[in-house]
Backbone:
């Protein structure tokens, strides 16, 4: 059985672009939550203005293959077009301790 994965994706977003970024993230989330294997996601904003990354997305997927298929699907590029100006730092993780 394939193992669940966590996507942790920090974004470089200038402070003046916060609202535009959130709206673009919501459009992308709306698409991804329709894809097989999607479990949940949450966007986090730094509590202090001097944080290196003001926004971090944390999402759960049933498998890494599900996530990869979703971001390779035809509708993903269209849904995520508004996020193209914000540099992402994504990686998939597995829980090793809790």
Residues:
């Amino acid at each position: 059985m394939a193992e669940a994965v966590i996507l942790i994706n920090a974004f470089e977003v200038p402070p003046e672009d916060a609202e535009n970024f959130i709206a673009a993230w919501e459009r992308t989330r709306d698409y991804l939550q329709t894809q097989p294997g999607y479990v949940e996601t949450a966007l986090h904003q730094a509590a202090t203005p001097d944080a290196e990354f003001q926004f971090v997305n944390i999402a759960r997927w049933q498998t890494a293959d599900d996530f990869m298929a979703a971001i390779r699907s035809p509708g993903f590029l269209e849904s995520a077009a508004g996020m193209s100006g914000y540099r992402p730092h994504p990686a998939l993780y597995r829980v090793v301790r809790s």
Notes: The helical segments are 18-32, 64-72, 74-79. The longest strand covers residues 5-12. The two ends are 21 Å apart (CA to CA). The CA atoms of residues 39 and 61 lie 5 Å apart.
